[in-house]
Amino acid sequence: MKKKIELIGAPVAFGQQKLGVDFGPDAIRYAGVVERLKRIGHEVIDSGNIALPRLDIERFQSDQSGLRNYEEILAYNEELRRRVSKSIEAGHFPVVLGGDHSLAIGSISAVSQYYQSLGVIWYDAHGDLNIPEESPSGNVHGMSLRVLAGEGNQQLVELGGFTPKVTPDRIVLIGMRDLDYGERAYIKKHHIKTYTMADVDALGIHQVIQESIAYLKDRTDGVHLSLDVDALDPHETPGTGTKVSGGLTYRESHFALELLQQSGLITSMDLVEVNPLLDQGNHTAEQAVALLGSFFGETLL
């Protein structure tokens, strides 16, 4: 089914501490995302990037108490929420190009307004389920999913005027291999559907995705896919800031996205944490574009 895809660049870097992720959306464009999606047969609207406030390098790299760059993250996610809401109201399929994973607070806050029971697939090496008092770093990109589930900083939690944006019983985590102790306790307490890399090894990616689809199908009326390129092994996607060895392969990820596309469940998407300053010849952005191709129906024959 052909879609009207809207690409929204969100070059936010405030959620973590490495320069370069703010160049991610343009690296993905340079890798040919618009042309590739058009070749599949979709209409593509590139809305450009949401402007960043000036990045104070000295402050960005300095030690900060509490939530790092909190005011900038709050303001940016509010603007992103408005932009994604406009995309949905126009009947588009929004794809938010990051930027770090703190942007999911804004994107999913927007999407959740239009569904009674939104589901979220978090395709990532990390759970991003920390709260400020338990975070080892203060980096908001490691707290975004917990905020969306209704816990954490009050203003972030209440972005858009309602909370939660997603409940734990409608979350699926895929690719987990680096979880802090507080995140593990939260996952166990709320019985969040979680597939670690050990589960992927034991079951195979086909069964993992089929089980995820079956789990979400009858309890959601829309599903947002939030894909962090660090879900893949660093050999596959070297251009990202929080590398963890032993991740998903390029082929597994293509197959996963093909299956999700065939399910018809996914209604919106983030693609985050591409950092061309840490990359090799824009390889990670090229992989990201190829993954989008698979998700939007690209086939060999």
From TrEMBL:
Pathway it works in: Nitrogen metabolism; urea cycle; L-ornithine and urea from L-arginine: step 1/1
Cofactor(s) the protein needs: Mn(2+)
CDD domains: Arginase
Reaction(s) catalysed (UniProt annotation): L-arginine + H2O = urea + L-ornithine
Molecular function (Gene Ontology), one example: arginase activity
EC number: 3.5.3.1
Cofactor note: Binds 2 manganese ions per subunit.
InterPro entries (alphabetical): Arginase, Ureohydrolase, Ureohydrolase_dom_sf, Ureohydrolase_Mn_BS
Recorded superkingdom: Bacteria
PROSITE patterns for this protein: ARGINASE_1, ARGINASE_2
Pfam family, one: Arginase
Keywords for this protein: Arginine metabolism, Hydrolase, Manganese, Metal-binding
Family: Belongs to the arginase family.
Protein known as: Arginase
Gene this chain is encoded by: rocF
